[in-house]
Structures are given as structure tokens and as C-alpha cells.
Amino acid sequence: MEKQAVASLYGQQVLAQLHASLEGLSSSEAEARRATSGPNVLTKSKYTALDVLYLLALNLPLLPVQLLLTSLITDIPLITIASDRVDSKEAMRPEKYNTRSLLVISLVLGSCTALFELLYFALVSSRLLVFVQTSMFLFLTLLQLIVIVSIRNHDYFWRGTRPSRLLATAVALAFVFSFALPYIPLTARLFSFTPLPLQELAIVVGLALVYLVVLDVVKVQYYKRTDKDASKLLDVQPSTQAKH
To answer: Which CATH class is domain 35-229?
Structure first.
């Protein structure tokens, strides 16, 4: 009886240690998947917004210092992307670093971004140059911040996981800082900005919100199609192996 009791106790200890080891392995795997999602988000954000911005800059009347300022402001939230939360559904199936897939989604969403940038430029192109430069700077900066918010997950942004406190704070501060620059005399003079009336600010924000909805719809439809194609490919592979 004593031997059976000792064996039973020993078995329980082994199972407890094994359970603890598996929990540690599971948490490590989840952390690894969360960590690997950051570079993908960073790459897609940069390709979708910044590369399109520099291509359009050849025809947009923005000063080089204004372009650099836009890039600097929107890079700060991207630094905090490593602290972001990952959707549990996406963590169950880690996203591989596929260069072709990243380029395709960046081109698709980048084309959407370019259309809205050209649309807004067409709306304000007849105004004074300093007005066009200020409004385009605010609009482009806001679009890039929206890309960061939208591209974090494959679902609609309001359905996905909430951003981490650090990322949300960085995006909010970038938004406030960029919209405050034209109204601070020193920065307005330094970066060639002019204060915009509230009506123009409302147009900038309103069109940016429309862009957010369109970008999200395009993104979700793209991932639905790619996920469907991937599932078909997985179904075909077992049947092919069975024939061999």
C-alpha cells in the first residue's frame, strides 16, 4: 500500500511538472507569435503609406522639410508597435514573413491611399500655396496614422483587439501634435504653415474617416480572399499526397 501511495504521489508530481512545463511552452509560443507580428505590421504600414507619399511628393507642392516632418511624426507610433496586442485568432495561426504577400497587400492598400491623396489634392489645388501645403501635410499625416490603426489586424478595426495603451497614446499624441503645429507661431513660421479655419479641418478629418472605412473594407475583403485560397490549397495537398 505504501509503495502504491508513493508511486501515486510521484506520478502526480510528474504530471504537475509536465503541466507547468507545457504552460510555459504555450505562453512562450504565444509571446513569440505576438513578437513576430510586429515586423509584419511595421512593413505593411511603411509600404502602404510612406512609399506612396514619396512617389506622390514628386507632384505634390510639399516642401522637403514638411515631408520629413510627416515621416518623423508617424514613425514615433510605429516604434511602439512591439507593445501592441495581437488578436487571439491570428495568434493561433502565426503569420509568416512572406515578401510577396507583403508587397501585394501594400500595393493594394497603397493604391487606395494614393487615390484619396490625389482626391484631396484636387479639392484644394486651386487655393493659395501655403494653404495647400498645410492642409496636405495634415491630411497625409492623418492618413498614415489611420494606416497604423487599420493594418494591425485582418478584421475591421472596430472588431479587432484594442491597441496597447502605449500605441494608442503615441497615435493620439502624434495626431494632436501635427494638428497643433500650424497654430503655434514658431512652428508655423519654421515649417511654412498657416492656420486653417475649422471648416477646412472638418473636411480633412471627414475625408480621412471615409478613407478609414474604405481602407478597412478593402483590407478585410483582401484577407478573406487570401484566406479562402489558402484553405483550398490545404485541401488539395492531402488529396494529392493520397494519390501518390
So the answer is: mainly alpha
